[in-house]
Amino acid sequence: MSKLNRYNQKLLAIIGTLVLIIGAGSILLGLGVWIYDGIFDQPQRQETGVLIQDPENPNADPEAPTVKQSLSFYDPVRLDTIGSSYLIPVGQKNQEPRDGRRNYKFGSREILSFSKGYYQYQKGLHNNFVIYNHQDESRRKVFDQLVAVSQWAYYRNDSNKVLLFKASTEDNNHDAVLDDLDHQKLFVYSIQNQELQEFKLAHHQVIDFRPMEGSPLVAIETRLDLNENDIYKHEEPIEYYALNLQTMSMMPLISAKLKTEMQGILDQEKTGRP
Q1: Predicted local confidence at residue 23, as pLDDT
Q2: Contact at 8 Å (CB) between 174 and 54?
């Protein structure tokens, strides 16, 4: 066999090997993308905002037809393993297509169990909830007003069982939809007393709530509206409140006096004063 033939055979072998490697790589890449899509891109429940008629909306068309919505119920959630109460989220579906921001992904569930309490946490976009007790067959709605709840949590300790809700009640951005883009407030429902309480925080937007383990307190994360224009930006400060589930009272986690002292230290550092 001539040297030219041996060279051609080696060259063909190298080309063939490269083709096999590229082909195998493409297959593996395609398989990886397929697996990723299957895990992370699974179809999720979609929820629309709560449509409202806003007479102050400058962009509203008075001759536009009203889009109606229907109640849509979701899977009952057992509130604890020893009780008989279930929470049924109530959503809403448009009866016809509507332009604009229509869908809200439903998901993000978390359960925390610790020595002195139990905490269950979910996100979604709902207009109400029903508490169902299978022992006495009772059914009660939580809200008597139009709301858009974007987050809820169930908390149980030795002395109390409560539901916490982050919800909008006013269309602050005048888009004729109540959703998580509007001002978020804090509502707390006592299961024992069957009472709903709104905790009003002037110039604060509720962002999140988490239990403070080892205590009857829940930390309420809020964003402060510094210029009091009802527009809450990510650049504005975060402040925490402590909700006491035994007394059903709330107070700043950092006192005004301590906050003033620390702000004075920060101001001195920024201005270079001694």
Answers
A1: 65
A2: yes
Verify that 114 and 6 share a domain, yes or no.
no
Residue range(s) defining the domain that contains residue 21: 1-42
Between CA 123 and CA 126 the distance in angstroms is: 9
Bridge partners, 154 (sequence order): 120, 163
Supply the DSSP string of 141-165, one letter for each residue.
ES-SS--EEEEEEEEE-SS-EEEEE
Rounded Cα–Cα distance for residues 157 and 116 (Å):
6
* Any domain includes 226: no
Number of domains in the chain: 2
Q: Are residues 53 and 35 in the same domain?
A: no
Single out the residue of 221, 123, 119, 204 nearest to residue 163, CA to CA: 119
Closest residue by Cα to residue 104 from 164, 59, 168: 168
Q: In this structure, what DSSP letter does residue 227 have?
A: T
CA 169 distance to own-chain centroid: 16
To which residue do tokens 């702000």 refer? 263
**Spacing of C-alpha 62 from chain mean position:** 33
Tokens of 145: 């007003």
| pLDDT: which is higher, 84 or 150 | 150
Task: Kindly report the pTM of this predicted structure.
Answer: 0.72
Q: Which residue has the tokens 């004729």?
A: 176
Could you tell me what percent of the chain has a pLDDT over 70? 66
Average pLDDT of the residues of the chain: 78
